[in-house]
Specification:
This protein has 190 residues and is α/β, with parallel strands linked by helices. Helices cover 35% and strands 19% of the residues. The protein has 6 helices and 7 strands; from the N terminus they run E-H-E-H-E-H-E-H-H-H-E-E-E. Helix 5 packs across helix 6. The longest helix is centred in the C-terminal third of the chain and has 15 residues. The chain is globular and about 50 Å long. 35% of the residues are buried.
Length: 190
Amino acid sequence: MVRKFITYFEKEGEDYTDELIAAVKDKLEGSDYIKRILIASASGKSALKLHDAIGDDVEIINVTHHMGFSGPNESDISEEMIEKLESVGIKTYFGGHAFSGAARGVTNKYGGYSPLDVVADTLRMFSHGVKVSAEISIMAADAGLIPVGEEIIAIGGRGHGVDTAVILTPVNAKNLFDLEFHEIIAMPRD
């Protein structure tokens, strides 16, 4: 048996980005098996903060919104930020969201829901960041940016900043229900 602790924030939001990164850094100091961290950072700012805190000890991959998320042909991350992230070794991934993607286009036009909406809402029962962490891990695995079957840290939140970090074993989308959560490092309580 091993006792571990979870950091709980009062509520979700960007106010906890620095504390979340500190919790992830603490977890890394006690771990020699985590080689990769995924972070959902639409603007890239949280990914850069993470790198500034932990350095080059592990590979960091930033997952941003897909092109067109905020408007046709628009990117939520600037070319300058992508270059800044690349200069410190952080890759940035753009791709359709694993739990919505084209299915969202169908439900927006015709109504109803997709089975993936049920999966996403179930994960949101823990926190929006738990849902995002699972989603970005599937997206990165499907893009070949991370291997399946290897524990990673995945970091997410809602809107701006990050407030949730988990250790999970990613899978490809076709094996969705084989995804395994191992530890919650931090998350909002409400």
